[in-house]
Amino acid sequence: MKKSILFLMLPMLLLSGCSNQSHNMDKSTSDTAVLKDKSQNNDKADAKEKVLPKYPSKPPELNLFNTDAINHKELWGTMNGHDPAIFKDDASGKYYVYSTDVEIGSHPRPGAQIRRSNDLITWEFVGWALEDGIPEEIQAWTNATNIWAPDIIKAGNEYRLYCSASTFGSQKSAIFLAVSNSPEGPFKYRGIVVKTDTGDPVNAIDANLVVEEGTGQQYMVYGSFWSGINILKIDNETGLAAEEGFGKSIARRPRSVDGAIEGPYIRYNKDTGYYYLFVSYGSLFSDYHIRVGRSKSVTGPYVDFNGTELTNIEKNPYEVGVKIAGGYKFEQDLGWMALGHNSVLNDNGEWFLVHHARPEGEQNWPYMQVRKLVWSEDGWPLVSPELYAGEKLQKIDQSIIAGTYDRIKHFDFMLSVVEPSEKMYLKPDKTCMIDREKGEWFIEGDYRLVIQVGNITERYVIIPSWDWEKKTTTLVLTGIDSEGRCIWGKKNNSGN
Is the pTM of this model over 0.85? Predict the structure, then answer.
């Protein structure tokens, strides 16, 4: 987080993929033939039945840069939602987000912020998790002035909040546990889980709790910069550390990029049989972005699309991990930069990615964002290019797909803090044009689109969504190509 978090306390007026050589020309040709057969079958089905998509209803306005809200917390909504940890309380059915103490234009009150929602779209500020702020023992060790990156887990009837405390650029840090019988607190201090000092191999901030499938054993993944991300076994009964030391290293980056990795988050997908480790690369205010690796074991090793372990520091540091979201800009609309420090929710089979971001050129205005997360056919998470508005996966009639799209490829190395869009043309005859290259497109199943351009195959999920930039409904695409690069697309209804 955190190397620059203190800048958020200033007064307001001061106010990256992979290559996969195994996908060769022969395989692409074979895949295309198979896809053509599937497309022909879909053509016959479409002749019999047409199913038009159901788009989400118009959501409330984002109301960005609302200076009236700065001193009125009831108006915050997603504003100031930094390092958000998502949680659904099964007892009430409500959604909660716990986040870093940040306040635009003033010094933040310490205590870990709580927000609540009924639908993942509209959020209200609830208050602070810890009424008394930073526990005395933690403050004495870290000299922290606010709480960073809380995460929550429910154990029995007990809500356990894991909080981080540190100061800018320091390893004198601690992760501590506070507990409550309510997701809205108040949370009471229980003890230190792990702490670090100058010279230790890791930095004790950015905790996330994960439960091992089958055994129920709890683990905590944590870390920021220095030697990266570690995983530590947790005592299920107390919620404190079950082992001495700092645990096992599962992801890191070389000193050539300042070891810039943090914000780890692990979730298990029963449908794929993998644990997924999400991490943030880069600098908080510029090229911050989200990457992922996966493993059959909660303790790793975690590998990317090419099988490279996330602990590999010999390879080009921009070619490790699957980059699933980063700064972007559609046409001349407002861009978003520094997407990162995410959490993930599996809500009865519907998946969501929650993270913070900053409007392009406005680093002192952080906002929490919620996006729908879907899965590629080979088990990689794909993130919607649009904020969540209630959209659902559904059968898409191929007759509505042809048109002009704005397309963003998430390259390994960013030349600017936002990736600009380019045009993509999907024609009614099922040919396409991308960056002056011709190709073909096909429908596969109910909502999957496949594009073949030369040796590259791109596989997308089609989602009828709300276009927050244009304030209308449209089709969006989120996909991954045969080299492991994620791609976003959005149908430009004015360009057809």
Answer: yes
